[in-house]
Structure formats: structure tokens, C-alpha cells
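task queued by scheduler; priority normal; single chain, no ligands, no partner chains; default sampling; output format set to C-alpha cells
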Amino acid sequence: MQRSIWLICGTHMFVEVYLLMQVALIPVLIREFSMSLLEASLIATVPSLVALLVNLPSGILADRFSTNQLLFASMLIEGTSALLVSQTKDFWTLLLCVSFLRLSSPVYHISGLSQISRLAEPKQLGRQVGFHNALGNVGTAGGLITLAAFLPTVGWRWTYFFWAVPAIVWSFIVLGSAQLKVRVSGRPEGKKTGSLSKLRLILLSGLLAFLIVIGVREVGATSTSTYMTTFFVDVGGLTESTASLIFSLGPFAGIFGSLAGGYLAEKIGAKKALGWAILGCALSILGLSFASHIYLLVFAYVLYALFNNAVWSPMNTTVADLTPVSDRGLSYSVYFFAEGLVASTTPTLAAGLIQLTNVWLIFPISAAFLFASGIILQLLNQRK
């Protein structure tokens, strides 16, 4: 594997450290700040909305600036924001700092994935993206493990401080990398197209139909990931630290799921691999809903995390397959914008439903959305 891809994947590991930390803290925030579930859900919704607004500008930047500059900006934003989060004393300041922290994700993902799709051999793209996602899961697991360790001892704020320093150090490592200073572009010389025309061509390439599948799937996946620790505490009767520890098993399973998703995308095709992964997600989350013992609960959750992470490589590979290489940054920004739009609104809607009923009901409903996305994907395949 090229050194430049290694550096991009290493950056992905740091970016994902805080991915699930906020949602894992929802039961803690409810207790610490005496909030309702609906109010606490803002920690998942507002940062996602902020990141959503940055997606399209990040796509334009990814096609105009070198990868090392954007990766440096992403890491610096994350590190400084995490330091600020570690010093917060009230919920609204915490929400503001976490929202700023989430800006690092679109700045990184659109630039990093665009560059991997350009540098990797077409036949090996699925495997390379799978490895990229696996390292992201290493970061997420590390974040949750440290949260579970710090939560009952020195407090959750120390987790943000613990990871902030290496993120800032890594920002200067990628900035000085000669391998990432050259921007690789597939745009023919002398050929220029307006941004609106490029966006229209990208959507007409088949990406728009694929985004329907992604949106329906995201409703189910976001609902479960946001309230998984709440489910463990309220329904499973576990302590907050135990729930965080079990939650951290998901990213470890995701390492293998990401690698398996990349391998399947390479062997049987991205769309078939995505279909099988979505089916596995739906069945395992349905099993989680009706698990009556803690061991069955943990097994079903780990199985769900395995399949849920297996979807990313086929999805990212499909975006690359459907869109022109010269505008890959804009293509990924459209993809992340659509995905983020659903992810940013779903937690609050789900919280409202939970307050009217209970947290358990979210899980079979999420399974239904996952089944629906798999069916839509098969219908699109038949039309192809």
C-alpha cells in the first residue's frame, strides 16, 4: 500500500475517535445536567447539522487544495475543539464545542476518500476503502475504551483531553508529508465546467437513485447507534460505564466488518456486497430487540456492528464507480450531504417517539427501515 494512503488512513483513525463518544454520553448528560432525552438528543443532532453545512464547500475545496493541507486543517480543528470540550462546565458550551469539533469530519472525509479513489487501482479500491474504514473503527474503539475507563474514575472530560494532543501532533505530520502535497486530478487540460453543471452531471450519473437507498438505510442506522447505550441502560439495566464498555465492542467488530466489506466488494461487486450487509444489519438489530439475556444482547449487538461497518466500503466504492474521477470531491460531498441530512434530523425525531412510547420501540422500527433500504437497492439493481 502506498505511503500516502497509509497517512490518509491514519488520519481517519484520529477523526473517528470522537464519532460515538457523544451518543455514548447521552445517559450521563441526562443525569449530570438534569435534562430530558429530547434535550440531550441535541448533542447528536446539532453537530450533525453543522457538519452538514460544510459538506458541499468541503467538496469544492477537495478538488482545489492539496490533501495534506485539508488533512492538517481537519486534525487541527479536532484537536483544539477537543481541548475546549474538556474544559466545558455547562451543556450549551459543550454543545457549541462538540459542533465545532464535528467540522473536522467533512473536511477530512471528502478530501481523504477522494484521494484514495484517485490513487488506488480500480480493482483494489474496495479493499483499500475497507482498510481505511477498519482504521477508523480502531479510532472509534479507542475513544470508547478510554471513555469507559475515565468515566467512573476521573470523569468523561479527560477522554477528550487525552486524544486532543496526539491529534494536534498528527496534524503537523501530515502537513509536512511530501506524498500528500501533490493534488492528483483527473480533469482534462483546458476543460472547465461550472459547479451547477458538474452537480447536474453527477446526479444524472446514477448517484441520485443510489442516495435514496442511503437515506432510508441511514434512518435505521442512526436511530440505533444514537440510543444504543440508552437502550442498554434503560432496557438492559446496565450501569453507564458498563454500557459504554459494551458499546466499545462495536468498533472492534467493525474492524473485521470493514475489512470483510472491502473484500466482498472486490470479489462479488459493491452493490451485491452492500445488499448482503444491509440484510445482516436488519436481521441482527431485530434479534437485538428481542434478546432476553445479556449474553444474547451483547452477541446481537456485536453482530449488528459487524454488518453495519461492512456497508461503508461498498457504499464508498459505489459512489466512486458512479461518478467522474475529475469531480470526485464534489461527488463525495453530495453523498455525505445527503447522508448527513438524514443523520442530523433522525435523533431528535426518534427522541420524540421514545418520549411518547419507550426506547425499545426504536429498534424494530429501525430494522424495518433497514429491510426497506435493501429492497429498494434490489429494485434499482433489477432496473439496471
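post-processing summary
- The chain has 19 helices and no strands.
- The CA atoms of residues 9 and 132 lie 5 Å apart.
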